[in-house]
Amino acid sequence: MLYYIYDKSFEGLLCCVFDSFERKETPDCVLAEDADLPLFSEFHQVTTSDDRSNRVFNGLRNKLSKSALQMLYFCFLSEIDNTETNIFNYMRKCFLHKVSIELNFADDDVLRLSKVYKTVCNEANRLKQFVRFQKTADGIFFAVMDPKCNVLPICSDFFKERYADQPWIIYDTKRNYGLYYNLDSVETVNFDKLPVSILSGKLNQEQQDEDERAFQALWKDYLKAVTINERKNLRLQRQNMPKRFWKYLIEKN
Predict the structure, then answer these.
(1) Which portions of the chain are predicted below pLDDT 70?
(2) CB of 146 within 8 A of CB of 166?
(3) Rounded (10°) angle between helices 50-63 and 83-96
(4) What single-letter DSSP state applies at residue 82?
(5) Could you tell me if 83 and 75 are in contact, meaning their C-beta atoms sit under 8 angstroms apart?
(6) Rounded to 5, what percent of the chain is helix, strand, coil?
(7) What is the pLDDT of residue 234?
(8) DSSP state of 40
(9) Which of 64, 75, 209, 211 could be joined to 68 by an S-S link, Cβ 3.0–4.6 Å?
(10) Residue spans of alpha helices (H) in 77-211
């Protein structure tokens, strides 16, 4: 079997398509360079190049709608096994077919990517719904999450527009990086060592702003006051609010 190895970037995946046509071969699978490589197989290391990735991307832009291009990028962020190969196959078919394949759900790659896209969109919506900021002693609003998919990049504009008047950090503990909004732009940040309090989803008292505990108490009292115990439906609650997010929800702690 022939494997293409790339640098785990979207541009690198585009270069896989370029190499495939240039070398006139179709790999059986595309793998990131940190993946476990199978034995007794043939490999080709793909070199990422801005020129090559731009040529492939511009070609796709002529073949696909904006929504289809967005779908490919969202699927790339899914981190679901074998999705890279599906994206690669999808892009190759775009160049091989005269008719657009976007709506050809009889094609296995199109059908699977449509499902992956839905998964990523759902996870992005949950991130937007369940983020709970805590004000730090430095005046920065801080939140942690560990979404199933790498959805922070596609949620950046949403949070920037919604919380444009306050500095904030949203940190992905699963991938050890976060987004920091400094009232002007959003940049990526990394912490060398994550404090236990961050992993648990709740800042220590000394890390919090003086008013933070009071606001959290008010929030809990409000929810307690509006809750009608006789109408509690824990099963429905778990469906709408997956349990894996509960540790980050102030009202559940």
Answers:
(1) 195-198, 253
(2) no
(3) 70
(4) T
(5) yes
(6) 50, 15, 35
(7) 85
(8) S
(9) 64
(10) 83-96, 108-130, 152-162, 196-200
User: Would you state the structure tokens that stand for residue 21, as one six-digit string?
Assistant: 């046509």
Sign of CA dihedral 48, 54, 59, 64: positive
**pLDDT tens by residue, 200-225:** 777 888 888 888 888 888 988 888 88
Q: Which of 93, 58, 57, 87 is nearest to 74 (CA)?
A: 87
Question: How much is the CA Rg of the chain, to the nearest whole Å?
Answer: 22
Q: What residues contact 184, with CB distance under 8 A and at least 6 apart?
A: none
Residue 94: Cβ within 10 Å count: 20
Q: Mark residue 122 as left, alpha or beta (left: phi above 0; alpha: psi -120 to 50; beta: remaining).
A: alpha
> What's the rounded Cα separation, in Å, for the pair 119 and 96?
28
- Please tell me the total number of residues recorded for the chain in this structure: 253
Q: Give 146's contacts (C-beta < 8 A, 6+ positions apart).
A: 172, 173, 174, 244
Distance CA 100, CA 93 (A): 9
**Spatial CA neighbour of 166 closest among 203, 134, 196:** 134
Other CB atoms closer than 10 Å to residue 36's CB: what's the count? 5
* Whole-angstrom distance, CA of residue 32 vs CA of residue 138: 39
User: Identity (one letter) of the amino acid at 25?
Assistant: E
141, 133 Cβ separation under 8 angstroms? yes
Q: CA 169, CA 191: separation in Å to the nearest integer?
A: 12
Contact (CB, 8 A) for 79 and 149: yes
